[in-house]
Automatic annotation (TrEMBL):
PANTHER family: HET DOMAIN-CONTAINING PROTEIN-RELATED, SUBTILISIN-LIKE SERINE PROTEASE
Upper lineage: Eukaryota, Fungi, Dikarya, Ascomycota, Pezizomycotina
The species this protein was found in: Neurospora tetraspora
InterPro entries: DUF6601
Listed name of the protein: Uncharacterized protein
Pfam entry (one): DUF6601
Length: 233
């Protein structure tokens, strides 16, 4: 694999990063109460998302809860994959970490780092004080529909920034970090016990997923967020 570059990755949004759907649209893990006014579609993937999220817009003095029953909102996508705090100091990241994939989970434990669940992406793989913070992989990230419907837009905002492109880079980098974290079946068992991977995913499925994600290893570093060029911070 060629050496990674810390330059901003190019935007490649023409396809999904994997081919196999671990969670097809018809998949569900529980019985559903159907609304008489807005019944969920049998081809909907909205049940993979949280029930709600905190919609914070400081410039408008808004800090409230927003339902995600009908699917992800733009504010949810932006908040779910927000790495702005780390990218504001991207030129200093080399001081906090090495430009290599993270150590696998079993090695984290051997280094006396207790896995602690976080829901914030910019805390993922941050360690200290005998702990390493890890963000679980949500089911919707294993669906091709999420990538094609939510992360393929090239539309730019008034500042000329493609927010969905940035979200896609962050999401791809996040998945790539788990390729490093879950290398062996021992790591996989730890990940499922800790709730870091969906319990419905099997070891065989994970091996296939990793194989597809690494189909073009040299392209990985060109298309992930700068933060994920580095492992633990």
């Amino acid at each position: 694999m060629s050496s990674p570059s810390t330059n901003s990755p190019s935007y490649q949004v023409s396809s999904t990063p994997f081919q196999t759907a671990l969670f097809p649209l018809s998949f569900t893990t529980h019985s559903t109460i159907h609304s008489t006014t807005n019944p969920p579609s049998s081809t909907s993937y909205t049940h993979f998302f949280p029930a709600s999220h905190r919609n914070i817009r400081p410039h408008e003095a808004i800090d409230d809860l927003e339902s995600l029953y009908k699917g992800p909102s733009p504010s949810f996508i932006a908040r779910e994959f927000d790495l702005s705090r780390l990218h504001s100091i991207r030129h200093l990241l080399w001081l906090a970490g090495r430009p290599v994939p993270p150590h696998p989970l079993h090695q984290q434990v051997l280094m006396n780092r207790e896995p602690i669940v976080t829901k914030k992406l910019d805390q993922h793989l941050v360690w200290g004080g005998g702990r390493v913070f890890l963000k679980p992989v949500s089911k919707f990230l294993f669906t091709r529909e999420f990538w094609t419907r939510e992360l393929t837009s090239r539309k730019k905002d008034d500042a000329g920034v493609c927010k969905r492109c940035e979200s896609r880079q962050a999401a791809l980098g996040f998945l790539f970090s788990y390729v490093g974290l879950v290398q062996r079946e021992t790591d996989f068992d730890l990940a499922t016990v800790k709730g870091l991977l969906p319990r419905e995913v099997t070891w065989g499925q994970w091996r296939l997923f990793v194989d597809e994600l690494l189909a073009s290893p040299d392209a990985i570093y060109k298309n992930i967020a700068v933060r994920f060029i580095y492992g633990e911070l």
